[in-house]
Design goal:
By secondary structure, the chain is mostly helical. It has one domain. Helices cover 75% and strands 0% of the residues. The chain has three helices and no strands. Helix 1 runs antiparallel to helix 2 and helix 2 packs antiparallel against helix 3. The longest helix has 34 residues. The termini are far apart.
Length: 103
């Protein structure tokens, strides 16, 4: 089952994470910055999950004309979410590795 993130809560959490990220306000972060990249990725995945949820609701009520397109969109949103989670896991592993380093 796909559980979409709540729109306003997700964007607010991404904004807080981007603002708290080291170097987010520094000139080295650049115009795009890593925080903005993460924020836009979260927003995109969230939109895909919300669209999939709407497709599932239309499917349940029998309003869907093309089942194949619904299934393709569901699979795309599932894969996007899995990619997001893998990126998150890699970032956490890298952070933990840096924290284990002795100075």
């Amino acid at each position: 089952m796909i559980f979409p993130l709540q729109g306003a809560e997700t964007v607010a959490a991404a904004e807080r994470a981007a603002a708290a990220a080291p170097g987010a306000g520094s000139p080295a972060a650049g115009a795009g910055g890593f925080g903005r990249l993460v924020q836009s990725g979260l927003a995109e995945v969230n939109q895909q999950l919300l669209a999939s949820q709407a497709d599932l609701q239309r499917l349940a009520t029998g309003e869907v004309q093309n089942l194949h397109q619904v299934m393709i969109r569901l699979e795309e949103s599932r894969l996007s979410f899995q990619l997001l989670m893998q990126v998150r896991n890699r970032l956490l592993e890298a952070y933990q590795e840096v924290m284990r380093m002795q100075v």
